[in-house]
Amino acid sequence: MGWAFGCGPSLTSETHWQKRSRMFALLRKKSNLLFGLGLIAPCLIYFCVFFVWPIGNMLYRGIDNPEVSVGMPKTSVAIASWAGDELPSDAVFDALGQDLALDGREMGYKRAAAARRLNYEISSFRALIMESARAASKLDQPPNRQKILEIDERWGEIKYWHAMQRAARPITPHYMLTAVDLMENDDGSISRVPENRALFIKVLGRTFWMSTVVTLFCVLIAFPVAHGIAMAPAKTRSLLLMLVLLPFWTSLLVRTSAWVILLQPNGLINNALISIGLIEKPLSLIFNRTGVYVAFIHVMLPFVVLPLYSVMVGVSKDYVRAAYSLGASIPHTFLKVYLPIAWPGVWSGGLLCFVVCLGYYITPLLVGGSKDQMISYFIAFFTNRTINWGLAASLAIVLCLSVFILLAIYGWFSRKTLATGR
Amino acid sequence: MTILRNLIKTVSVATVLTACDTPLPADREFTVATWGGGYTDNQRAAFFDPFTAASGTKVIDGVYTGGMGELQSMAETGNPIWDVVDFGGPETVAACREGLIEPIDFSRVENIDALGATAEKECGVGFVAWSMILAYNIDLTGDQPKSWKDFWDLEKYPGKRGLRNSPQYALEGALFADGVSDAEVYKLLATEEGVDRAFAKLDEIKEHIHWWSQGAQPPELLKNESIVMSTSYVGRVLAAAKEGAPVALGWDDGFHSTSYWVIVKDSPNQDDAYDYINFTTAPKPLAEFGAVQGMAPLHKDSAALIPVEKLKDLPAGKNLMHQHALSDEFWVDNLETLTNRFNTWVAQ
């Protein structure tokens, strides 16, 4: 076979022959690999173009920091080497003057974006930039220090210059730190934000807590349901499955709004309870945590029932019968025989439910109050309302990371239980 | 290559902005984005359909739910899927600064003199005024609560009171209840001490506040006696009162603001947009829309076209005499910081 690769004087030598054959094998392996890659290429390209790239691009915004270096180009360069212990040199003031005096519509837009970015550092910074730029026509000729300080005395406060220096870097930790309630101080140290501004850790904790509660309830409710479906005769089974799938296929908005109608103070449930005399005043069942849990569990149930069912339907009744015939009690049979076999279904259904819950947005928004909003509400707020996409991306990163950590723990845990034979 | 790059950009933005509509080709039909539901229906009856009948230009309606996320993504992808949007004041200011909407050429706006000074923003044409007022349950309050001081008076008006789930209105209301004057309120809220003072005042009634998030809630909550009084939009309360609910409203100490038509940056249908703005700021369409929506037309000749009994329920004239103007500039700069602080405070 090696002939195909051409002849040489040392062709007969044993080592050369082996070498050629090895090369050929390698080539064949390579072409196999290429062939395989070719087969999965559409999928791979799709995955990269529509998933990895856009999401990576979006997440990169969590550290990207272009606004100030684009909107105030000279100042960004000049402030980079500032030592930070006293007001910057005349050169920095001159650069600021030149940046503020740049005119033209496009430049104005860029400066406004820079001002928005600076406002994240100090909440009066946007106004300072916009007002100074309005008075900047006299700033095109240096020296500018005195003129700038006359336009607005806040330029004499060192905290604005520290904020400017932080915001002018090409990459920033600002959003990531904010997403975990930390901040960078003027001296470069990192500390917790004041108590009255610490929000996101609390929200993240709330997100995990609510997801846990929903998952637990879903598993508790779904277990008997899935068992019932799995044990039912074939005809009833498909009907019962249909009953699970129908709400699953119904629009989420419709289901959530239906709960609003049912749970509101003069809704069906309250009216029924009042008319049979159980309560006098309507219970508040909606726009609070109760409402969120009720609607949430209903929305999530199919995610748990279906995996559980698919495991349970494969469990032979013989195991249970065998346990009974050997004298085991019903609880004993359930705990020692049935539950261990169904356990993978509980895990996968529970995990699926939990992970989906973590990113849920619309249900808490429609039936929750202000104390019931999860982290996705804030991601949407910063994306849509205030276009602080950096912070939105950072919150998304924090959420993703916590899911990855959770999955790692789950993976470790399930390997361990597998190894110990449970 | 540019097409591919645009496509990728669009997809990447759409991944996060699920609210965004599907991108359309550049020669798409004229699209107006507005607030959805009954509000869009009222605009269709008063604005879209008559405009189509008069000009032959079809109007597609898009759903806008507030904020600037969609416009930012349209600007980044260079793919404006809307032409005209029904914007609030703070958004008009902020989007204009960053070039997300077109500066208005007021020589092309026919009615601008009749619309008055508030209608003229660098990038927006005001068309109606709206109001956030104090609504109450007649049976539960006895005496009408008339001010933010009354709102804070737990002895005279025991029971829960509703506020919108936002630092907007709540912080201003707290300072008014604390005796701050109209002229001082935003100056004070721009300082740390002013914000502390507002939250301290809110602490006094924190346990008695029911936070609402959707405009339909306050009349419902008042009707079923979950709360005794609440901030609310005008139209919703009037509709509930008409259906016989024991609710009423007072104008004093409420807030008023303006809605603007804005033109999306690089919209391919700008001529249609100006035609549309000119058509909808004429007296008759404005009067029709304002009367059904509980909003006041800005055109000075519209009032004559609205029946007197309807006119007295609109946020205009003497109804606004003791109202406060919501500051667009203040909320552009502070909405984010104060919303974070507000959410922290609510959760405590």
Core attributes:
heterodimer, A: 422 residues, mainly alpha, MetI-like fold, two-stranded antiparallel sheet, 19 helices, B: 348 residues, alpha/beta, eleven-stranded mixed sheet
Rg of chain A:
32 Å
Mean pLDDT of chain B: 90
Largest sheet of chain A: 2 strands, antiparallel
User: Per DSSP, what share of the residues of chain B sits in E-state strands of 2 or more residues?
Assistant: 15-25%
CATH architectural group of the largest domain in chain A: Orthogonal Bundle
Count of DSSP strands of chain A: 2
Total number of distinct structural domains of chain A: 3
The CATH superfamily of the largest domain in chain A appears as: MetI-like
Radius of gyration of chain B: 21 Å
* Strand residue percentage of chain A: under 5%
Q: Can you tell me the overall shape of chain A?
A: extended
Q: Return the CATH topology of the largest domain in chain A.
A: MetI-like fold
Class inferred from helices and paired strands of chain A: mainly alpha
Topology:
The complex is a heterodimer of chains A (422) and B (348).
Chain A: H1 14-60, H2 67-71, H3 73-79, H4 90-101, H5 105-121, H6 125-134, H7 145-151, H8 158-167, H9 174-179, E1 182-184, E2 190-192, H10 200-231, H11 234-249, H12 252-263, H13 268-275, H14 289-312, H15 317-325, H16 330-358, H17 362-367, H18 375-385, H19 389-419
Antiparallel strand pairs in A: 1-2
Chain B: H1 2-16, E1 31-34, H2 37-55, E2 60-63, H3 69-77, E3 84-88, H4 89-97, H5 112-115, E4 120-121, E5 124-137, H6 138-141, H7 148-152, E6 161-164, H8 167-177, H9 185-189, H10 192-205, E7 209-212, H11 217-223, E8 229-233, H12 234-242, E9 247-263, H13 270-280, H14 283-293, E10 296-297, H15 308-311, E11 324-325, H16 328-347
Structure explained in plain terms:
The complex is a heterodimer of chains A (422) and B (348). By secondary structure, chain A is mostly helical. Chain A has 3 domains: 24-60; 67-172, no CATH class; 200-420, Orthogonal Bundle (MetI-like fold), CATH 1.10.3720.10. Chain A has helices spanning 14-60, 67-71, 73-79, 90-101, 105-121, 125-134, 145-151, 158-167, 174-179, 200-231, 234-249, 252-263, 268-275, 289-312, 317-325, 330-358, 362-367, 375-385, 389-419; strands spanning 182-184, 190-192. Chain A has a two-stranded antiparallel ribbon with strand order 1-2. In chain A, a hairpin with a 5-residue loop joins strand 1 and strand 2. Chain A is extended, with a radius of gyration of 32 Å. Chain A starts with 13 loop residues before the first helix and ends with a helix. Chain B is α/β, with parallel strands linked by helices. Chain B contains 16 helices and 11 strands. In chain B, strands 1, 2, 3, 4, 5, 6, 7, 8, 9, 10 and 11 form an 11-stranded mixed sheet that branches. In chain B, helix 1 (2-16) runs antiparallel to helix 3 (69-77), helix 2 (37-55) packs across helix 13 (270-280) and helix 4 packs across helix 16. Chain B is globular and about 60 Å long. Residues 10-25 of chain B have low confidence and may be disordered. At the A-B interface, helix 1, helix 5, helix 6, helix 10 and helix 18 of A face helix 1, helix 3, helix 11 and helix 16 of B.
